[in-house]
Amino acid sequence: MHYRTTINPPLSSSDFSSNAKGLSVAIKQLPELTERKRVLDMHMNIATSLFELIRERQLDQFFAMEENITKQTKALILEALRDPKKSPEDKLRLFLIFYLSVDEVSKDDLADYEKAMVESGCTVAALQYVKQVRAFSRMTAMSNVAPPAQSSANDFLGRFTSIGSKLTDSLKDAGVSGHFETLLSGVKNLLPTRKDLPATRIVDALIEGTAGGETDDYLYLDPKLGRSAAAKGAKPGAARGGPVQDAIVFVVGGGNYLEYQNLVDFASRKRIVYGSTELLTAKAFLGQLEALGEAR
């Protein structure tokens, strides 16, 4: 039998000093690392809760439909409205976006849609008010110059008054995928494409001095211009003392976060302040539409 004995060399004073120094640094960093872990855990809990809510409400399906809302058939819309797993609020918002985006909805089809929503527990008072707004906007458009033959849904919405534009902007709600794993891997692909909303396009045209289109009804008032120009209300393309870098955008009525965020993204090139009479969530906006529909 053979025995083997290993004798470690004694530690030098420099080794003890190095170990002690490393332990001291670790102890000093412990509170900072603990706080980082706490913040990370908090954000993970928030993200997990959001993903669970997205999965329960099937917002990924609503998102896919809303991105191609004008291509949805009657069968697909009715299927979504009759789905018992979808909430009445999300169904109503989806249909309002569809109703405002398409050129025409027949009376028979509209009756079928309303029946499906009522059976699903939706309150259609908001729809009654939106129908009034759409009818009024169509009459206003008919009193103007006839639109081109190839007029599309975008052309129709472009002729809406500011109230009509805010309907689609406020009701627009994006979602992400259903299962938690799919959400983590494909969330980037589910984000909406970058596009300027009507308010952003108008602001861009006004500060750049682009005349025509959506800015035809806006006036450019400058005390540096003569009295005659001020009295006539110079158009946005009037002469200016250089490009505009600062702007205050105020919405008389309800504003919304989507419109604000769109302007913030645009404001990376400009300095823009956004304000409104009140800032509404999608749920609060639907509540206002319902109150208006019930009061008519």
UniProtKB/TrEMBL annotation:
<protein>
    <submittedName>
        <fullName>Sec1-like protein</fullName>
    </submittedName>
</protein>
<dbReference type="Pfam" id="PF00995">
    <property type="entry name" value="Sec1"/>
</dbReference>
<comment type="similarity">
    <text>Belongs to the STXBP/unc-18/SEC1 family.</text>
</comment>
<dbReference type="InterPro" id="IPR036045">
    <property type="entry name" value="Sec1-like_sf"/>
</dbReference>
<dbReference type="InterPro" id="IPR043127">
    <property type="entry name" value="Sec-1-like_dom3a"/>
</dbReference>
<dbReference type="InterPro" id="IPR001619">
    <property type="entry name" value="Sec1-like"/>
</dbReference>
<dbReference type="InterPro" id="IPR027482">
    <property type="entry name" value="Sec1-like_dom2"/>
</dbReference>
<dbReference type="GO" id="GO:0016192">
    <property type="term" value="P:vesicle-mediated transport"/>
</dbReference>
